[in-house]
Amino acid sequence: MPVLLLIDLQVGMTWPRKRNNPQAEACIARLLAAWRRAGQAVVHVRHLSRTPGSPFWPGQPGAEFQPALAPLASEHVVDKNVPDAFTHTGLERWLHARGHRELVIAGVSTNHSVEATARSAGNLGFRTHVVGDACFTFDLTDLRGLRHPAEEVHQMSLANLHGEYASVIDTAAAERLTG
To answer: Per UniProt, what is one Pfam family of this protein (predicted)?
Structure first.
């Protein structure tokens, strides 16, 4: 059975910025409820910054999980300091020790932590699914100074992943994976 891997669903990610996909949290809540009903493994990934003053510095309000999507005591939590949830976290070892070979990834931001984690998961041999409608990102300025809307950034990131590192699916398809 696939593990639901929820990335960076922290309070600081809800603070006002231009983003896409306002229904992402509702989709994530549906996935979380489906995994819990099915008794399947859920892993919550939390970004803890190494930069003093960051909203994601340990103990800051921005670093806390969003209350509606917070882990239960029985659910595994992985703390990371870089975008990739596999780098220096023990996540790969935790998954292998429990025989997990398939991941369903949702969270924020699509072009940073979601994409970095999905790339590593695919490279490490996990069967990986990214739930496109359960992810979101923010507007981004490129190196030429051109501003790209969040939806464009989101779609390009999903296109980078699909077929190479992961399959991009929607919430309904992900829910069917629970059995």
So the answer is: Isochorismatase
